[in-house]
Each structure stands twice: as structure tokens, then as C-alpha cells.
User: Which sequence fits this backbone?
């Protein structure tokens, strides 16, 4: 008697996701060019938030290194975009970011709490200023020109990266690696006593999550004709994924997706109307979420779902 409801509950999210992917994949055929550009930006932020949540969500390690990985991907396009095919450049950008995350994680993922947060933010600034020094004193020019790719191609590459990131995040949550990450987040010392190699698990997941951030940076660099360290390693790329993921909620896979969509659209609206104040709005929203929605938007949805059930139990 209970098989049909359970099956429908499982099939509904899959069917909805399939429908959304069909609409997104066919958008350039029937949608205006502005919609394609807007959805490219939205999908970019969703990838950043989802990639950040792959590692930081279950472990509780707050990483502010997203700007370092994103900038590494952008500079990959600047250096290799004219010499190699686009998909190769995007893959190399992701691999370089993964290697950077692997090296940084090997050195620092023994740190916890504020020390890890400070190091990951400092990593982005260190790479930014190293490149600034190199360009000012060695290459003799600050910034690089990037090969331009049409917006439709950029959109489809971003869409493919989104699907890949979503699939990897889902598989990790369903795997032993996901269980190990959750145990680290609950009690890292207890996880180590149970036989989990916490350092290896953290480093591998950290490097894997950085791949999609770097690949997204590599393809998004082609949206601009020129990049420099201030553009590529903008601190917003470190803070925005954290804000989006926390706002959406880390308890469910769709939480960072919801947060990314909402905040990316809000940024588009606010930056055109309140160019000097939109970050103030984001800060106010973050404070409200931390104070009144500790579990994010997902937690609010779950509360709404529980109310009818609690009413049914009370009536019985």
C-alpha cells in the first residue's frame, strides 16, 4: 500500500530536474539573448555555491579559497585560450585548480576553525599579489587579453559543468566518501578513531570541489576581452558562494542551488539599480539568515512541510 507514494516521492524530483534541464538546454533556441546571458551568470554562481558545499557543507570547514581557484581558471584561459581547443582549456583550468587545492589542502587541512578560514582567504590574496608582482616586474604588463567565445557556447559549457557538479555532489552524498565527510563534520576525532583517514578524505574532496570552480573560471574568462588579477581574484568569488550556500541551506543538495539562483538574480537586479549599495543588502540578508534561519531556506521549507503532518497527528 505504501510503495506507490514512496516511488512517486522519488520520481517527482527526478522528473522535475529532467524537465528543468530540457528547458535550459533548449533556451537558446526560443529565448532572447539577454536571458541566455542572465542564466549563464546564474548557473555560474550555482556552480560556485554547489562546489563549495561539496566540501564545506558536510565537514563544517569554511573555505574562502574559491577566488583563488576561479582566478587560476581564468588565467588558464588567458595563457592557453589561443593555442588549445576550448574544452581542453576548460579541463586544464579545472585540473590546475584541483592541483592548487590539493597542495593547499595537504598543508592546511590539519588546521581547524578560524585558522583554516584565514589561510584560505590569504591564499587568494597571496596568488593575486604574486601575479601582480610577476606582471609588473617580469612580463612588463598588467593583465591579459582573452580569446572571445560566443555567448551560446559559453552557456552550454556552463550548463554541462553544472550538470557534472550536481552529479558528483549527488554521488558523493550517496557514497562512503560522503559518510566519511559527515562523520568528520560531526566529530572529527571520533571519525579518526573509527578508522577514517580524515586528512586524505578532506584533501581529496577539497581538490575535487575546486575542479568545477576552476573550470567555470576558465570558460567565464572568455566573456571578457581583458582580465587582470583584481578581476580574476575578486574576493566576491570567495564570499558569495558561502553566502549563497548558507542562505539556501546545507542540509539538502538543492539548498545551494536555491541560494545560488536567488542571490545571482538579486545581484543582477540590485547592481543595476543600487550599484553602490547592493553589497549592503547582501550583508543585511546574511545577518537575518544567520539569526532567524540557521538551517537556511531549506530548513524553512522543511518546517512548512512538518506543520500539516503535526496537525494530522494532533487530530488523531
Assistant:
Amino acid at each position: 500500500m505504501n510503495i506507490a507514494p514512496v516511488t512517486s516521492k522519488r520520481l517527482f524530483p527526478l522528473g522535475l530536474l529532467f524537465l528543468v534541464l530540457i528547458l535550459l538546454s533548449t533556451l537558446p533556441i526560443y529565448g532572447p539573448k539577454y536571458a541566455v546571458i542572465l542564466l549563464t551568470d546564474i548557473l555560474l554562481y550555482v556552480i560556485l555555491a554547489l562546489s563549495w558545499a561539496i566540501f564545506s557543507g558536510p565537514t563544517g570547514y569554511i573555505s574562502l579559497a574559491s577566488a583563488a581557484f576561479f582566478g587560476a581558471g581564468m588565467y588558464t584561459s588567458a595563457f592557453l585560450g589561443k593555442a588549445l581547443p576550448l574544452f581542453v582549456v576548460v579541463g586544464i583550468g579545472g585540473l590546475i585548480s584541483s592541483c592548487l587545492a590539493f597542495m593547499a589542502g595537504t598543508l592546511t587541512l590539519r588546521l581547524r576553525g578560524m585558522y583554516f578560514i584565514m589561510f584560505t582567504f590569504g591564499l587568494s590574496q597571496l596568488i593575486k599579489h604574486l601575479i601582480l608582482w610577476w606582471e609588473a616586474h617580469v612580463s612588463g604588463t598588467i593583465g591579459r587579453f582573452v580569446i572571445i567565445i560566443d555567448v551560446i557556447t559559453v552557456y552550454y559549457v556552463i550548463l554541462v559543468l553544472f550538470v557534472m557538479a550536481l552529479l558528483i555532489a549527488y554521488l558523493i552524498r550517496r557514497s562512503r566518501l560522503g559518510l566519511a565527510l559527515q562523520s568528520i563534520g560531526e566529530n572529527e576525532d571520533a571519525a579518526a578513531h573509527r578508522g577514517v583517514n580524515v586528512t586524505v578524505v578532506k584533501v581529496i574532496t577539497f581538490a575535487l570541489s575546486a575542479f568545477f570552480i576552476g573550470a567555470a573560471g576558465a570558460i567565464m574568462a572568455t566573456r571578457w576581452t581583458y582580465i587582470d588579477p583584481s578581476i580574476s581574484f575578486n574576493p566576491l568569488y570567495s564570499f558569495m558562494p558561502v553566502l549563497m550556500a548558507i542562505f539556501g541551506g546545507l542540509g539538502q543538495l538543492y539548498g545551494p542551488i536555491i541560494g545560488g539562483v536567488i542571490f545571482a538574480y538579486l545581484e543582477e537586479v540590485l547592481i543595476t539599480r543600487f550599484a553602490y549599495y547592493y553589497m549592503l543588502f547582501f550583508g543585511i540578508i546574511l545577518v537575518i539568515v544567520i539569526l532567524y534561519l540557521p538551517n537556511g531556506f531549506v530548513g524553512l521549507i522543511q518546517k512548512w512541510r512538518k506543520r500539516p503532518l503535526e496537525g494530522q497527528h494532533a487530530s488523531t
Summary: Residues 3-30 form the longest helix (28 residues). Residues 1-6 have pLDDT under 50 and may be disordered.
